[in-house]
Amino acid sequence: MPKLNDPVYLLLAPCVLLFGALLQLTIARICSARVKGIVAAATCLPALFSVISLLPRIQSGDAIDINLFSWDGPLVLAFHIDSLSILFAFMGTCLGAIVLVYSIAYMRRDPAVTRFYATMLVFIGGFVALVYCANLFCLYLCWEVIGLCSFSLVGFWYQQPEAVSGARKVLLMTHLAGYGLLIAILVLYHRTGTAMWTDPRIGRNFSTGIFLLMLAALLAKSVQVPLHTWIPDAMAAPTPVSSLLHAACYVTAGVYLAARMHSFATWLPSWNLILVSIASVTMIVGVMYALVQSDLKRMLAFSTVSQIGYMLLGIAIGTPLGIMAGLLHCLNHGFFKGGLFLNAGAVQHAAGTRDMNLLGGLASRMPRTLLCWLIGVGNMAGIPLMSGFVSKWMLYAAAIQAGWAIPAVIAWIASLGTVFMCAKATSAVFLGPPSEAAQDAHEVSPVMQWAMGLMAFGSIVFGVAPQIAYVLFFHPMFSALGMDTTLRVTWLGMFGGVGAFSTTGGLVLAIVSFTLGTAIFAVARISSRPRVTTVAGSAGILLGGPSDVFTGGEPLWEHDRLSAADFSHIFEQNWRSFFRWSNVDKLYAYGFQQLLRVAQTLVRPMAWLEQWVFQGLLVLAAAMILSALWMGRISPVYASIDTTPMPALLIGSICIAAVTLVCAAATTNEEKFLPLQLAVPSFFAVAGCMAQVEWQRFALLEAAALLSIVPVWKAARTRTSRLTYVVVVLLSGLCMESSQLLAKPEQIGWSRALLLTSVCIKFAAIPFLFWLLRLADELPAIVLAFILAVIDIAALGQLALRVEVDPSLLFPAAPWLVIALLTSLVAGTLMLAQRSIKRLLVLSSIEDFGFLLLGVASISKLGLEGVLLSAASHALGKSLLFIAIAAPERDGALARGDTGLATRYPYSAFGFLIGMLTLLGVPPMLGFAGRWKLYETALSIHPGLLGGFVLASMLALIAYVMAFTKLWWGIPSYDDKRITTVDTTERYFPPLIHESMILKAVILLLFVCILGTGVWPSIVVQAFQGGRP
């Protein structure tokens, strides 16, 4: 029997969930959708029991700290499990289990249930790991993992334009803001030398700037103004996703981070003011937009924006009562809002729509769903005996006690709007005579009813007995934080120490009032038979013609009913200015348009240089050499070049890239000799990497570059492109050879100038980007990948090792750093204006080369480690990207401009996504292991340098996401015929074009290498050390 501090026991919750995801892949072809759902829901139970079993240990106020092993430098797999962690882990596993039970019936007919259940389990496991992590880098890794799961699940029905648009918006807004969290972690590590937030040094160095950076990340994740606009578009996801991610867990990850920041450091009053202000604005904005929605799920989405504002308001107040109110509302919200989304899914499942203007009269046909709905909206509206009332009452009391009277009033006003919104939705969906859409509606399956019932029950428990949550979660939390553990104000007058529960006269009065009101309603319903009802969309006035909108002052015809438009029209008409000025999406669209203008401005001179490619190469090379000669006046410290073995990781990555490219060429290219033409120079490149003598390494790598001319010459479409590559190879090789020959103290200036010129030409850095762009559309994807992933990466490894043994070659480093930064920024900007996917991938390689030049120019151990790790990920990721587009290129899909290619090339689409994330350095891919080192290197040189490279990463992310969702997702088109409509209930699947087994195996091999080394970085570290003396 394992003990509570046994690492295996503590890891049970996240590990069993990840194991469940792998199990889904294993049983994909042997089990039905129903069995897969049962297995997924059952997988959550051991995780839930593991979390609950930790409660006795946590109740004493202690925390469980455990360090398992070090991954790479500050990346340590360490857990700090306290009551705050247990609260959110309980939410993830408990609500996750309920939602997966609901999914058994809801998703039973979807052909992609394996992908659905596997991603949901990965999300729950990542969420639990997130709240357990004591290491900030690991926390960021989990932060991005759940973000990727949200992107995948929102885009689950990727043939629907709404799903594509929603997934794109989710990833862009949350990941771009997530860079704030990453920068904050890098700054903290730079200042303290530790990434463990439990270390006291973190608190001493936690400044306002770091708070604001983390705040940006949590605002986007928790849909707070102005980063809230992605959540209504995310409603294109399946209903279980909306319930678990966008009501219960994903959006509350930011709430967890805000609460956890109280553990990092004592908050300054300005921090409280900032978050209180944002939360107050968010409560109003969220409820106002919810009031004018006609789509049931979008209304619930905007109400989530408002409700999370309540949570963050409580946390921002910072008192024990305020924090408890915010976190209790978070727990309550998970149950009642998660349940409301499940109710909305049941309505859509039964009626075929979620448009409230088309619904009505479902109460008689779905009475159990109505009951669960009423419990949910009662909680959201804050009706007594409901948990929502408890947390809101506590929040009002905490705000007033702490002197935040205005936010308390704002919260109360937002509650009034919430009541009106709940009345609108209930009336439009359930009351009145059945609408046309509701004629054939019926109660959903018992499995879905049980799930909705469990959500409703959970939302009642903490309303009747809120002390349960206090005893289980909040008292030990306040004890650990050193806060007052005695609640002075709670609802119904409760007060006292641990476990005290006083059934006061207030509770009796609430119960009596509820019972009496129910009795009066029942008697009135039986005795009265009104001839004029209060139901239906086009309200008719008895003495006159019909009115467009019911205003409340006129009676309705007997068969009329109130629609959602009747409630929202008055707000749309009278608050038109508010909705116009609060629509921040217009601001984001304007900013994106300005970025495109800048990119298009840069395209023009680049296009001119592409036309005059030979002249540009020669003139710019001469100009760079002459402008760099001033370095010769600086007296260097000269060191002879020693022999340094290349790391085994880089050699292995180049080998894998070469082998996979040769295999892909054999199956995706009609030129039968192309595999051989790629294999020969690959052999020389690998041999050069393994050479122990410097001159042998140089000779073999230059021979590989010369031999690479053969496949380029055979494959290029025009003579100009062929000659361009020949000139580049000869010119860069000549400059490199001359640099080595002149590497003497008296000629060091020439040596440096020639080395800089050679490197810039070789890697198409500023100002030589144009030659590689000229080749982009002229060469097959596989040949481009061979140049970028094998030949260039081998040469980069040689450069890094040469600089490592003779740093004086890069002295001074300023020109190198400027060129590196400009290369990444210009390439990232140009990516936004590309219509050709191959040109975009070429520019992304140039953008990545800027990062690699940064590491080389830093002449630091951390920087050179980042270079070699990033070079390895570049070789694998770039090979995967170009292999992914090789099959569509072979079939003419790229030339025709086809979209929705994931339907025909699912493995290729998957490979493109993984390669994209690798190049962007998104955890848990291998690219993150190198990128964070390069970011930290930039920070150690100058904070502005870090900002520039992060901006380049953001630009590349935007371009990649736009390209991926346009090329691979969306309405499929094929054979020059575009499908203009897609059934939203039964997805259309055109016939699959065969992806060969070799191509699938190559993509899976690269994926395993990238993900395996990224998830288990100790392998990377050991491989990096391989071959070192």
From TrEMBL:
Membrane topology (UniProt): Multi-pass membrane protein
GO cellular component terms, semicolon-separated: plasma membrane
Keyword terms, alphabetized: Cell membrane, Membrane, Transmembrane, Transmembrane helix
Subcellular location(s) of the protein: Cell membrane; Membrane
Domain NADH:quinone oxidoreductase/Mrp antiporter transmembrane: 135-415, 748-954
Top-level taxon in the UniProt lineage: Bacteria
Domain NADH-Ubiquinone oxidoreductase (complex I) chain 5 N-terminal as annotated: residue spans: 77-117
Broad class of where this protein is predominantly found: membrane
Residues annotated as transmembrane: 38-55, 75-104, 116-133, 170-190, 202-220, 240-259, 271-292, 308-331, 370-387, 393-414, 454-478, 498-524, 612-632, 644-666, 673-693, 699-716, 723-743, 749-772, 779-801, 813-833, 840-860, 866-887, 907-926, 946-969, 997-1019
Family, similarity comment: Belongs to the CPA3 antiporters (TC 2.A.63) subunit D family.
Protein known as: Proton-conducting transporter membrane subunit
Biological source species: Telmatobacter sp. DSM 110680
